[in-house]
Write a structure and sequence with these properties.
Elements lengths: L1 H15 L17 E5 L6 E5 L1 H7 L2 E4 L1 E2 L4 E4 L4 E2 L5 E8 L2 E13 L5 E6 L6 E5 L1 H9 L4
Antiparallel strand pairs: 1-2, 2-8, 3-10, 4-5, 5-9, 6-7, 7-8, 8-9
């Protein structure tokens, strides 16, 4: 499962023309598609995409909605890490994203299209709906 996830991320990032950088430019002054920055006190990193990279990846967003017992997001927003934890990518600035942990209480809706959360970011928080796996790959340095 993990090797399939990594292979998928590599394929998608390669097709999107994305790579990961720790600075805004490479040695030749060429702008990199993604800048990855550490966040003090957190184990996750911030991912900032260039405008072109965001278009190539096709990033789309949505807002976390209120449900009867907590909040709800489209299931496609949720990424599962190899350790079994569940996450969503929040929008923290223009083309800037940070992974936030969530707890999926259950999956429902039409054909399992909604994830009902018992913990995570607040209702109304803007999260990534399309491009989640590409952001995860960029954050981990896949394709570097």
């Amino acid at each position: 499962m993990r090797s399939r996830l990594i292979a998928t991320v590599l394929l998608v990032l390669g097709a999107a023309g994305c790579s990961v950088a720790t600075s805004a430019t490479d040695g030749g002054g060429k702008e990199r598609p993604a800048v990855i920055e550490t966040i003090a006190g957190k184990s996750v990193k911030s991912v900032k995409l260039t405008e072109m990279a965001e278009k190539r990846v096709g990033v789309e967003t949505t807002k976390i909605a209120k449900s009867g017992t907590g909040t709800v997001v489209p299931y496609q927003c949720v990424v599962y890490t190899p350790d079994g934890n569940t996450w969503v990518y929040t929008v923290t600035g223009p083309r800037q994203y940070v992974r936030e942990q969530v707890t999926v209480a259950n999956v429902g809706g039409t054909a399992g299209s909604e994830a009902f959360l018992s913990s995570g970011p607040a209702e109304g928080t803007t999260i990534v709906k399309t491009g989640v796996i590409e952001l995860y790959g960029a954050e981990l340095g896949v394709g570097k």
